[in-house]
Amino acid sequence: MSAARAGWDPRNLPSQHGRVFLVTGANAGLGYFSSEQLSRAGAHVIMTGRNPHRLADARAALRRRVPGASVETMLLDTSNLGSVRAAAASVGARDRLDGVLLNAGVVHPPRERSVTQDGNEVVFATNVLGHFALAGTLLGPLARAGAGRLVWLGSMSTSMWRYDLADPQLERDYSPWRAYVQSKIATQALGVEADRRLRAAGSPVSSIVAHPGYSVSGRTVGIAGVNEPTRTGRFVDNLQAALTQSKEHGAWSPVRALIDPDVEGGSAWGPAVVTKGMPRRARLVSATRSPEVGARLWAFCEETAAVRWP
Ligand SMILES: NC(=O)c1ccc[n+]([C@@H]2O[C@H](COP(=O)([O-])OP(=O)(O)OC[C@H]3O[C@@H](n4cnc5c(N)ncnc54)[C@H](OP(=O)(O)O)[C@@H]3O)[C@@H](O)[C@H]2O)c1
Fold first, then answer.
1. How many helices and strands (H and E) does the chain possess?
2. What total number of domains does the chain contain?
3. For the segment 199-214, what is each residue's pLDDT rounded down to a tens digit?
4. 231 domain residue, yes or no
5. 49 lines ligand 1 (CB under 6 A)
6. InterPro entries in the record, alphabetically (predicted)?
7. 105 in Cβ contact with 25 (< 8 Å)
8. Which domain range does residue 148 map to?
9. Which atom of ligand 1 is the closest one to the Cα of 30?
10. Among 110, 148, 276, 309, which is least packed by CB within 10 angstroms?
11. Residues 277-293: pLDDT tens digits?
12. DSSP assignment of 102-127, as one string?
């Protein structure tokens, strides 16, 4: 594996003029700041989200902060497979798509297990299944771009729980924390498994996992309609300043995974100092690198989402 360029400067990205990226959950947090960094580098960004008003606010904020930015918005609720199909059909017809950031996520799961209108557990549906379906449906335009990339948002929390292959939707034993961690283990495992399958099929598309360390709103610049933490929120987040970083900095690893020419399929990226810092190569917990876990999850997702990757 090549050591991706040591001199990578997330504040001075290589030009992305002429390139097109789609970001899920782009109206807030890491999705917003990734969109901002990509458009500042000259890319056209398709900002997607589930709420038209929040998306409009985010697009307006991005245009204020990046004069001349080339952005559009698109409704995409990752917990709803019909919404995923509709957005994928619209994007799939385009000539080019250079990367998809599979970022949207429920980060504070409901106390009680709840299901979507498709009948899937909400956290699994939003964080995992919708992204699996979206990614599989966008391989055509990603391949047309030559070396399109899928970047999946993993998490350090994956080392804090064991994955239960027999119960991906937590029908037997739900807790909010467990739902979150399982969803992130599944996300990472699918990201790695996707790359195995793309390589085996000779596809030019690659799949990469990135995590943002520990990135909090209260240490992030206030932006109307995008990031408006309360004074208490800022106070609490700043108490943990030694361990945390802003969401702006948290976006550095996913953005590098999307655009650094030296990043290889199947690799993982995260902050240099565990929870914060410059974007560097990272190592994933073994469960998420396991071909057995990847293959079983893949089969489960194909059946549950009724989407077969071409
Ligand atoms: N922040 C961290 O330290 C951290 C650490 C590890 C991993 N991550 C991962 O990074 C990703 C982003 O986290 P964040 O900190 O930026 O969270 P965030 O600030 O809460 O933003 C989450 C984004 O996801 C969107 N979203 C939620 N449900 C959705 C749905 N059904 N359809 C479409 N969009 C939906 C939200 O939109 P609404 O505004 O409409 O809710 C919002 O735009 C998540 O996948 C998270 O698991 C974050």
1. 12, 10
2. 1
3. 999 999 999 999 999 9
4. no
5. yes
6. Ergosterol_Biosynth_ERG27 (IPR051593), NAD(P)-bd_dom_sf (IPR036291), SDR_fam (IPR002347)
7. yes
8. 20-216+248-305
9. 16
10. 110
11. 999 999 999 999 999 99
12. E----SS--SS--B-TTSSBHHHIII
